[in-house]
Design goal:
By secondary structure, this protein is an alpha/beta fold. Helices cover 39% and strands 21% of the residues.
Length: 483
Amino acid sequence: MRQYPHLYIDGQWIEPIEPRHVDLVDPTREETFARVALGSAADAERAIAAARRAFDSFSATSVDERIALIDRVIDAYESHIDEFSELIAREVGIPVANRAQVTGPAQHMRVARDLLREYPFESRIGGAVVRREPIGVCALISPWNWPVQTGVIKLIYALAAGCTVVAKPSINSAASGALLAQVLHEAGVPAGVVNLVNGRGRDVGDMFSRHPDVDMVSFTGSTGAGRQVGAAAADTVKRLCLELGGKSANIVLPDADLERAARWNIQRCFFNAGQSCHAPSRMLVHESQMEQVVPFLVDEARSFRLGDPLESPTTMGPVVSAGQFTSIRDHIQCALDEGARLVTGGLERPDGLDRGYFVQPTVFTGVTPDMTIAREEVFGPVLAVLPYRDEGEALRIANDSVYGLGGFVFGGDRARARRVVDGLRAGRVSYNGAATDSYTPMGGYKQSGIGRSMGRFGLEEYLEVKSVYGFEDEAQELPPLFG
């Protein structure tokens, strides 16, 4: 049993005010493997007070000082990469072979550092100086599905901006959160600049969202939980950055390379056992090509190697918890009850895996837009394939969702594909499987969120804007804000 008995507040490892803990269950073995200290609202208040005290001095640090700090964090982080990889395999079932989960955070730190070197914190409009200043104390609430990377993206841009932080990782990934706090401590982050309080949303998360000394909340999680954060933050009119749920559509145009589109969709949708908010969990195929696409989907879905995430041949581990396992199976049963056609996968556990929260890679065809599986975020390895008659109908089906996080288009004619891309109401859209870029903004339309993370847009989420008048001579020496 691993023990994580402390919270990290004001540069010190301290025990919670009330002696509480949570046991972490290994989703592969269905056994408790770690015990983590659990904070309360009172601990959250201590963390907020520490961050508020540290803000005046840290917000006054120079860009060069913050760049040096980020470099130290990168070095400390990279010395623990293998430990992070093993830990998240035990916590949430992410295979050690999925190195992007642990190498990606260092890349995002480098992007933030390099952006910081060139970012104009002062610019001009006419004779006015336009300043961007750190917003203050930021509460960062992270999910379990990208347990290290999501927290790092929030944290590193807050530090780059000169903000101080109170952080709450998901309870499911609280051990990797504690390891990240250790990294920051080793890097010499000043006391009070970053504080970590494990705890439940109803007490720690709620205190972070309501407290008048918190100036901004950055939350990644479900749309339902995001609504609660927004409601709690409303009384003090905090800045919000919310990345919430998704039900992304992949429109495969008739002139696309159908096999490539199908195999890519399966790999992207079932990456991380389907526990990804950008997963293309709806695939839209022209009605004349529905039967043609099925063999490619089935073959690719059956190519995953399910098993122990600590073993390198494994390409899909278990889903995170018993609750998630039950929810995904309920959605599969609902699809069967509503008349969808199961072409691979299903309710049964994978062969040879009688223990652990394993779900077969599952594909349904014959799905209509009104079916539950076409509308709700399953957050598991389940794909709904829907037919469409023409380009206009494909866009109507894709956009007929409360979500708007991601979108995908496959096609041969670039002009036609660009027309469809432009018609998708989503924050990130990729053509023919093009990779995303760490410098570009990430966020959603509609109930998929508010604000953007990553790159310049992500940095500016942590900055206030001040217009200064009467210093025309100084303004003339600055770059214009526009153009």
